Amino acid sequence: MAAPEDAGAWDWFPATVGSAYRKGAGSDGDLLSGAAFEDMLEGLRGAAALVASARAPASPVDRAAGYRHLLVLLGLAVDEALRPSNPYDPFFAPANVDAVLKWGMDCPDAAYTGAALRGDATYRVRGRRGTARYLGFQVMSGIESTVNIVADDLDTAGDGSFEIMLSAREHAGNWMALSPRTSSLVVRQFFYDWDSEEPAWLDIECLEPGPTWPDPEPLSPAGVARQLTAIGKFLEASIVFWLDVEDGGRAQGINVFRQPAALTSMGAAAENVSVWGSWELGDEQALVIEVTPPEALYWSVSLGNHWWETIDYANRQSSLNGHQASIDDDGVFRAVVAHSDPGVANWLDTAGHRQGPVIFRWLRAQGAPVPTTRVVAVDDLATTLPERTARVDGAQRRAIVARRRAAVRRRFPR
């Protein structure tokens, strides 16, 4: 994803690392003197200081997750620095955010991809729908979503194939408008049935101007210097940004949900309305979440840690979507957030974390209800939940987690 033009204001955004190679202040001397490498190390030291500060939770698991998150940020930054993103030679590749490299509460049901764009070019996307519950396309200006199309609304052939034109000039048929601020195309696939749904096939090409490529230029010392400096800025700025987000949420209440929002200015699709809150539980506490799900193309709930990483959803049942969830006879979805398995089908596993965000996504839904919550003693769950709320035993839970693990490995083979 290409970075915003005012990249200095967006140091927390991973794509600023990639774009730094092509623009910004920096010289060959910054690399050759070692100054740019020191900039990177200084940013890493600053980020590590934040992980160890009073702003961060001090429990052993949360502290370990904080330091591990620094490795995640390094992984994201290095990936951005090394991979090509030429808007005149675009291609779809798996996004660097996946089941291991987590950032910004990515969706546990998703496979992300995208390509760099320019507003003065014309592109054609070819695809075949597949069976993923949701396939959405977004034209982005930096991190702001400006145009959205859901694959279900496209004109498609009988075999599910389609084409989308992307350009400033309007085209007949499937078309997405570009502007001078356009920087990228983001594609999301959300899977409901992880065992059986098949991803879409996608390809993109730049039609105008047609690519005419000179021999590759020698590696730019100044460009590498700018990227090293950008990595240092990103490491610290990303930590600060998500700490600020979580602190702001926690200031509005713990173990409660806030009002729904479609955060297109923060990259969300217009059809995706989120409701999020902050959770925190003691050893013997459980958070009971209740909501009547509306009719929706897709909905889900997922837990995160304090660093705004989704909790390991391959090896833990830390998320549920509308296909996986058990709904009680009265139409209510009841979930239990707890540190140990209470034997409730809709358990959300904290994986030892003490606090973090929790997000509902309501996508093309007939409303965006705000769930109700109660903190109860784990021992009181039997009398708190309706008698017919679905339960599972240990063998069933192990089988569920085994299927999750296998499905995530298929989705992300690396």
Question: How would you characterize the overall build of this protein?
Answer:
The protein is of the alpha+beta class and 414 residues long. Among the domains are: 1-85 and 220-245, no CATH class; 246-411, Jelly Rolls (Sandwich), CATH 2.60.120.1600. 25% of the residues lie in helices and 27% in strands. It is built from seven helices and 18 strands. The strands form four sheets. The chain has a five-stranded antiparallel β-sheet, with no helix packed on it. Strands 10-11-17-13-14 form a five-stranded antiparallel β-sheet, covered by helices on one side. A hairpin with a 2-residue loop joins β4 and β5. α3 runs antiparallel to α4 (60-82) and α3 (35-51) packs parallel to α5 (221-250). The longest helix is centred in the middle third of the chain and has 30 residues, at 221-250. The protein starts with 14 loop residues before the first helix and ends with a helix.
Features:
single chain; Jelly Rolls
